[in-house]
């Protein structure tokens, strides 16, 4: 750095003009204009504006003198030799003096050098800020960005010259081109006039390129080549005809829908019809590079067109969706047509290769599908061993307002290069309507572009005018090549407009009159492009009209065929089929679940591995060593705590070839330092061991991965991962149970109703630490009431099944909610999740204090061969021996059981009070509850919970108990009073509340004489 300061000092001493007045502005042009230096900057600010460029050149020269122009090489050599100010720039090589007499004075030579430096700076300014003056808006009335700064040095030729200290006479002078530009093609020198012309063609036309923030020279050079080499954007006549045909299909599809169903919402693509050729170019180039599976996600605008012309769903299946008389054949509520997805394998006609396209279903919650797509793509890559994403990739489409406004976009971007979450590059296509629903961009975002969020991961951003189809497909070609070359995200910003309102029934003139007056005058892109090709002689008018007529005929025939459809099969729209898991009709292959217990040898083997370190010479932390020794002691005693029960469930599934994935914040160690599935060497940095991957010789892999500090994005990702295969146990653990609050959209829109809306089975497991521990309102409750409210079992109807009650009830549910109180039951419910013949989401309220509670242990006998998950754990103490004498039965769930048991013992009421645990809360175990209340026919019934009365389980279980009891007996509530917050933040208040409801639970006179 001291050497650089010396070099910079020589520059200041020499007083080169590019580090003064105008050159300061030029350097300002090389940085973010919103941070820039004023045009009248003083000497200190000049250094701030200009030194970074000198430093960049200097470090490049240090690496290899050939990296810089020969003139810089001479300068830095002289500067390092401590040449006095003014002499370092002398003895310039003759390359800078081409066309001039070699007998020039030192002052004249200095002028030549300064002019070359000014030209180099001008080139760099175009590369950095040319997109700000590119012609991106097809309407010609708005800037694509919201930056009020106008780069005056790039507007007119006179301004450019003056800004950089050049004269109009310099336009015809020849200048040496730097190695950081390719505008010369095979030429190394060009006249200034031609340099400017080529830069404007590259950076100020219908394409705006943002890439100079990328801190990788190779990647920047790659992008420069793609946009600067003269003539690189040429298309063959055949390519132009293909583009026109695709544009015809996109446009005429929307026209056909508008004619047939003029009063229906369809969220059409009018104004951005070029999206279809854009996506098809991405798919073509990706297929050419070896990709054979693409997972896509998009909002509702243009979905029907993408389904028809990209995924190639049968048109009659799309058209029949508009029939209001169509009856649903499949169970469930279904969804509107522009939310549905599709899975299709077909031949790519351009490459003649098989390709599988999956468009994911998603609701109107814009961008919610982003992490789901990424998770599914990651899973497919994982199961295929595609570690570099050369076979499977993802494409995400976005709206401009949602891309800038929805936080899940940012969360998803930050997963893009994390080892356990990367999909090796996603192509993002933003359909930039330049408006939200009715909100102007200036009121909707603070960033200049809606795509600026992508800069956080150094993704290049290609802005393109959507009324120039050739520019669009060229940008898509480059984006596909970028993803294939660098395996990194890339963004295409399709600057377009929305010909109608938010939907076809909306009136946009209310709020955007100027924009829509121009839109009404705007010529359709198909008309513009067809006229262009006809004028070029690429196609004739007759050929164009025949292409239009051919597609119109296809639509008409499909429309006629669609009228024969009387029944809607949502399964035809399934985006994640599991063909080997279900029967041909989509039903489970059986309706029974085998026992979930294991033999003694397997239990011992897994627990011994969980208690040891499989690597030699591994330096383990003393605290972790104590935990492993504790596990070894439990193994000798044939006992398991919560962590060991989980370990045995995971390990046994791995033995059976089931991939297990556990993801979330700090899950490797566990929030409460109980798990330790990843052991770290205390002496060797980054050396670690995952013992569970050393259980069996041919086991399935175990993936345990700490996530970014995200819930919405990561839960969506894991949901998508679980969609890829039914033969995997995919678990997401919240750091604390209430952290799922910020992932509520995924729970409400995908997990709870996914099967009803989209016939989408999913076996994801949510592990939510829950329990009132006196630690305050934030990390106490996992909000069980929310999950129970969304459970679809009927509280007023006692279910009747002819087969296995438990399995049939689970099959009818939308998800399973459990609160296990023993390690054995946790072990069984995890194994049952895979052994069931179908998949349902599983919500587990996991403990905190019970992780180390001495009574919360299970014998190996409770997990032995023939055992299974217990939906209810009945009382097995003295009360159960004489049930007719029991005065009170307390039903409860989870941790409060141990507090109730302790209080019962202290009051010596073991014979008078029975305590029964509901381990599975939803679907409600009607049959087992009925058996228990009949057993204790003389007892008073209590529901006790530690949560407040308006929270927890009471509102769910009360009507179901009354259904079991046929309203002949009451069930009383014992617990905390209603409250606004989930728990108190005061320890004394917490203990007082606990004592109060425990006293009530065992006060046998508490409810005497009260009517129900």
Q: What this model shows, in words?
A:
The protein has 1012 residues and is α/β, with parallel strands linked by helices. The chain has 4 domains: 2-205, no CATH class; 237-313 and 344-543, Thiamin diphosphate (ThDP)-binding fold, Pyr/PP domains (Rossmann fold, 3-Layer(aba) Sandwich); 600-770 and 819-863, Rossmann fold (3-Layer(aba) Sandwich); 873-1001, Multifunctional 2-oxoglutarate metabolism enzyme, C-terminal domain (Rossmann fold, 3-Layer(aba) Sandwich), CATH 3.40.50. Helices cover 39% and strands 13% of the residues. The protein is built from 34 helices and 28 strands. Strands 3-10-11-9-8-4-7-6 form an 8-stranded mixed beta sheet, with helices on both faces. A 7-stranded mixed beta sheet has the order 17-14-18-19-21-20-26, sandwiched between helices. Strands 23-25-24-27-28 form a 5-stranded mixed beta sheet, sandwiched between helices. Strand 10, helix 17 (469-486) and strand 11 (490-495) form a beta-alpha-beta unit. The N and C termini lie far apart (83 Å). Mean pLDDT is 88; it is low at 1-51 and 84-103. Keywords: Calcium, Glycolysis, Isopeptide bond, Magnesium, Metal-binding, Mitochondrion, Nucleus, Oxidoreductase, Thiamine pyrophosphate, Transit peptide, Ubl conjugation. It is found in: Mitochondrion; Nucleus. Its cofactor is Mg(2+); thiamine diphosphate. One of its GO terms (cellular component) is mitochondrion. Belongs to the alpha-ketoglutarate dehydrogenase family.
